[in-house]
Amino acid sequence: MKAKNYAIVSVVLSTLLMCVVDGIWQPPYLYKSIIKIGLFLLLPMLYFLLYRGKAVHLKKLFSFRGRDGLIALVLGVGVFTVVLGVYFLLGDYIDLSGIRDSLTGGTGVTAENFIYVAVYISFVNSLLEEFFFRGFAFLTLKKEAGRRFAYLFSAAAFALYHVGMTGGWFNIWIYLLAMAGLAIGGCIFNFLNERSESIYPSWIVHMFANFAINTVGLILFGIL
After folding, report:
1. Domain residues for 58?
2. Which regions of the chain are under pLDDT 50?
3. How far is residue 217 CA from its own chain's centroid?
4. Per-position DSSP letters for 14-52, written without gaps between them
């Protein structure tokens, strides 16, 4: 199989399988995380093993440039502020209890273990997603399939990946708006990483977005 086809098929199948896991099977969070690591980490690493000419590119994905990191840090703080600002401004008009109940009933996330889950989501899960969607589905695939295709494909896959886990959280219009926002966010993350060919800029912003979302979660669970 050609390198481009392997990458495309791996991303599509992994994204669809995670939709099934999140939206239909809904196993405990630990099992779901193990499955995600297998799909989002091992399949890309197999790609770099099979197509050894990409190994140099793999190293670039984890290179770090101070200026890019500083820009990402500023953007991350901005995202954190906006997300929390929207929550505090509109929280009285949005019923988020369904999200809490979905987490508790579907994946076994509770007030007792939420802090541990939040730490994992913020640092480990965000890095795993950035490696898969930006490092593998964008930066690597851009070299094989072209810039425009990689931008659109990785952003669409990133939005699709969230379909299973967020199903039933909102009404259809807010749901569609959220999916469009995720796709646009995926393109922005791609842009942040494109110059440095590293996943660190988008990872920093992703972490701060998760910090904000997890802060809301701490409030929903009555921890804060």
Report:
1. 3-220
2. none
3. 17
4. HHHHHHHIIIII---HHHHHHHHHIIIIIHHHHHHHHSG
